[in-house]
Design a protein that fits this description.
It is built from 2 helices and 21 strands. It has 301 residues and is mostly beta strands. The strands form 4 sheets. Strands 1, 2, 3, 4, 7, 8, 9, 10 and 11 form a 9-stranded antiparallel β-sheet that branches. Strands 12, 13, 14, 15, 16, 17, 18 and 19 form an 8-stranded antiparallel β-sheet that branches. The protein is globular. The chain starts with a strand and ends with a strand.
C-alpha cells in the first residue's frame, strides 16, 4: 500500500504499513464525517429538549483526525532508530499542511500530536503518526428518497448501502430532568424541570463490492446528514424520529481489500426533544418546499 507524506514515499525511509485494530488497512479516520462548528442548538430551560440550529446559514464543519500505523525494522536498534530519526526529520521540515497520498485518497494534513514509537524488539519498532485534516471535502451525491418504509428521509437502508442497522441510546427511555441549581436554607432544595434532549446511537454496516463504491456510499451519507433541516428516521418497531447530526460520525472496522468491502458507521443522532415531530414540508407531488434561499422548510406536527 502506498503512503506518501509531503512528497516522500514513507517506504523509502523504511516505513511498512500495518493494520488498525479491527481493520485491514493502516489508516483510520479518513472516512469520518467531521463535527459541526459553532453553536448547534439552544437549550431553553422552560422547554423539553433543545431548539436545533439546522438552517443552511448555521451549518459549518470542522476537521477530522487521522492516524497512520506501521513498523520500522532494522538489523539492530541503532539501525532502525536511524530510519526513525529520518522520519522525524521529514516531519520537522514541514512548515504547513502537506499531502498524505494513499490508495484511499489524498488528504492535506498536519501532524497534530506526538508521534509515538513503541518498542517491539531489538529489530523493530511500531510507529503511530497522528494527523489533523482541518478542511474536509464532503462531495458526496445526495441520495434521493423513494418513500421507503424504513430508512432516512425515505431513502432505504439498502440504498444507503446498509447491511445491518442498530439503534440504541434513549430509544425507549424517558430522558433525565434538566439540571438546575437550587438553594434552600436549612433543607434540601428541589425543582421540577423539563426533560433533557434524547440522544441515540445509530450504527450501520455498509457493504459494497469495491472500495470506491464503499466510499461513495459513505460520502452520500455525509451529504444526507449535512443537508439543512431535520432528518426523519424510521426503523422497524419504532416511531418516526426527527433528528440532526452535530457530532459527525466515525467509520471503523474498515475492510477495503478483495471483492467484499465493508465498514461500520457509528453516529450520534440528536432529537430536538420538543413536542411533536419535525418534518420537511412537501407539496402535493412529494417535492420538497424551499424558501427564497433554497433552504428546506420544516414544520412541527
Amino acid at each position: 500500500m502506498m503512503y506518501n507524506l509531503g512528497n516522500t514515499d514513507l517506504a523509502s525511509i523504511g516505513f511498512t504499513a500495518s493494520r488498525q485494530d479491527g481493520s485491514d488497512i493502516a489508516l483510520s479516520g479518513f472516512l469520518d464525517m467531521p463535527a459541526r462548528l459553532g453553536k448547534t442548538f439552544q437549550d431553553w430551560a422552560d422547554e423539553d429538549g433543545i431548539e436545533p440550529y439546522v438552517s443552511a446559514s448555521e451549518i459549518f464543519f470542522g476537521g477530522r483526525d487521522l492516524k497512520l500505523t506501521g513498523f520500522i525494522t532494522g538489523k539492530n536498534q541503532y539501525d532502525y532508530m536511524t530510519k526513525v530519526n529520518s522520519l522525524y526529520s521529514l516531519i520537522d521540515s514541514f512548515t504547513g499542511l502537506v499531502p498524505l497520498v494513499t490508495d484511499w485518497g489524498t488528504f492535506n494534513v498536519g501532524v497534530s500530536a506526538a508521534v509515538t514509537g513503541d518498542y517491539l524488539s531489538d529489530k523493530g519498532i511500531k510507529i503511530t503518526i497522528p494527523f489533523r485534516e482541518p478542511i474536509v471535502t464532503m462531495n458526496g451525491v445526495l441520495p434521493v428518497g423513494t418513500s421507503s418504509e424504513f430508512g432516512i428521509d425515505g431513502v432505504s437502508f439498502a440504498s444507503l448501502g446498509g447491511a445491518f442497522i442498530e439503534l440504541s441510546g434513549d430509544r425507549r427511555n424517558r430522558t433525565a430532568p434538566k439540571k438546575m441549581d437550587v438553594t434552600a436554607y436549612g433543607k434540601e432544595g428541589y425543582v421540577v424541570t423539563k426533560k433533557e434532549v434524547p440522544s441515540l446511537t445509530f450504527k450501520l454496516v455498509i457493504k459494497q463490492a469495491s472500495y470506491s463504491l464503499l466510499k461513495a456510499k459513505i460520502l452520500a451519507l455525509m451529504a444526507l446528514f449535512s443537508t439543512p433541516g431535520m432528518r426523519n428516521l424510521t426503523v422497524n418497531n419504532d416511531k418516526i424520529r426527527a433528528f440532526f447530526v452535530k457530532d459527525g460520525f466515525t467509520v471503523s472496522n474498515i475492510y477495503a481489500h478483495g471483492s467484499s468491502c465493508y465498514a461500520l458507521v457509528e453516529c450520534k443522532l440528536t432529537e430536538s426533544g420538543v413536542g411533536g415531530t419535525i418534518i420537511n414540508l412537501m407539496d402535493s407531488l412529494g417535492d420538497l418546499v424551499t424558501d427564497s434561499n433554497s433552504n428546506q422548510i420544516t414544520v412541527r406536527i
